[in-house]
Write a structure and sequence with these properties.
single chain, 120 residues, globular, 4-stranded antiparallel sheet
C-alpha cells in the first residue's frame, strides 16, 4: 500500500532553515506529481508546493516562493523541502502528499506529518 513517511521537522527560531524529507513506497514514485501541504493549529490543510513527476516543473504558494525549494530523487523515492528564512507563520504540521495542487489536498495519500515550529 502507499506509504509516505516524513522527517526533519523541529523547533527553530525565526530566520532559520530546515529540510524536510519524505520516503515513499508502495507505488511507482516517478509516475506521480508530489506535493507538500501543511496544517497550522486550528486551520485547514493548505497547499505549499508541488513538483512534477520528472522534477522539471515546480510551483509554490506565494507566501513561501523564494524561501522554500522542493526537489525529488526518483532513484531513491524521496521528496524533500528545503525551507529557508522560516517565519512564525510557517508553524504547522507538514505533510508529504501524492499528487499535485488539487489531489494533494483532496486525495487520501498523505503521510503522518512532521511538526515545524518557528519561534519569533
Amino acid at each position: 500500500q502507499v506509504q509516505l513517511v516524513e522527517s526533519g521537522g523541529g523547533l527553530v527560531q525565526s530566520g532559520s532553515s530546515l529540510r524536510l524529507s519524505c520516503e515513499a513506497s508502495g507505488f511507482i514514485f516517478s509516475n506521480y506529481w508530489m506535493s507538500w501541504v501543511r496544517q497550522a493549529p486550528g486551520k485547514g490543510l493548505e497547499w505549499v508546493s508541488s513538483i512534477s513527476n520528472s522534477g522539471t516543473s515546480v510551483n509554490y504558494r506565494d507566501t513561501v516562493e523564494g524561501r522554500f525549494t522542493i526537489f525529488r530523487d526518483n532513484a531513491k523515492n524521496t521528496l524533500s523541502l528545503q525551507m529557508n528564512g522560516l517565519k512564525p507563520e510557517d508553524t504547522a504540521v507538514y505533510y508529504c502528499a501524492r499528487g499535485g495542487v488539487t489531489d494533494s489536498i483532496r486525495g487520501n495519500y498523505r503521510g503522518q506529518g512532521t511538526q515545524v515550529t518557528v519561534s519569533s
